[in-house]
Design a protein that fits this description.
The complex is a heterodimer of chains A (109) and B (125). Chain A is built from no helices and 10 strands. Chain A is mostly beta strands and 109 residues long. Classes of the chains: A mainly beta (109), B mainly beta (125).
Chain lengths: 109, 125
């Protein structure tokens, strides 16, 4: 079973600054990785799929990179609406067990 | 605009079966381009994938829940459903239904691109 590990658990960033979130897979997932944003009381929203492709309507300040076991979500200039929890998800191995990472909370510094 | 809406009891007794339905509107559940799935989130915790289904009825389940989970599809009603048996307090969570894009190369479920708003289910006597 592939395990997805996100770091850090919490990231404190000032508005306008850059945020870099990491997601590591215990074995290769190729580029079959997605990133989601979740705000309190809301369903998750798809940001990135295929490791680096932005979903429809997602601002260009969100970018994804990586392949294999190491992935990064970068928010180039944090806006107030970006403070949320971010999850990575692998969909390479079937059936997956713990397909989602445990999440990274991006909070205001 | 495709939308998903979960429905079902908000309170289930321990040892009973949790039953939820997801109604798809604004599009067809019978599209060959998508799977449909259930995900849950215990209060204050992360996301857990439960299972996914194709319109043909093919299913994939989380191995940790497989013995208790049944997901089915009703294309005539544009709905899919979740049944989770022998529930305990550990099954208390917000349950989401979501659409999954098919990964074309592998013909397997990919990312969840559209989500329902979620429904809270509490397991308690």
């Amino acid at each position: 079973e592939i395990v997805m590990t996100q770091s850090p658990a919490t990231l404190s960033v000032s508005p306008g600054e850059r945020a870099t979130l990491s997601c590591r897979a215990s074995q290769s997932v190729s580029s079959n990785l997605a990133w989601y944003q979740q705000k309190p009381g809301q369903a998750p929203r798809l940001l990135i799929y295929g490791a680096s492709t932005r979903a429809t309507g997602i601002p260009a300040r969100f970018s994804g990179s990586g392949s294999g076991t190491e992935f990064t979500l970068t928010i180039s200039s944090l806006q107030s609406e970006d403070f949320a929890v971010y999850y990575c998800q692998q969909y390479n191995n079937w059936p997956p067990g713990r397909t989602f990472g445990q999440g990274t909370k991006v909070e205001i510094k | 605009q495709l939308q998903l809406q979960e429905s079902g009891p908000g309170l289930v007794k321990p040892s009973e079966t949790l039953s939820l339905t997801c109604t798809v509107s604004g599009g067809s559940i019978s599209s060959s381009s998508y799977y449909w799935g259930w995900i849950r989130q215990p209060p204050g915790k992360g996301l857990e994938w439960i299972g996914s289904i194709y319109y043909s009825g093919s299913t994939y389940y989380n191995p940790s829940l497989k013995s208790r989970v049944t997901i089915s599809v009703d294309t005539s009603k544009n709905q899919f459903s979740l049944k989770l048996s022998s529930v305990t307090a550990a099954d208390t969570a917000v349950y989401y239904c979501a659409r999954r894009v098919v990964v074309v190369v592998a013909a397997t479920p990919g990312a969840f691109d559209i989500w329902g708003q979620g429904t809270m289910v509490t397991v308690s006597s």
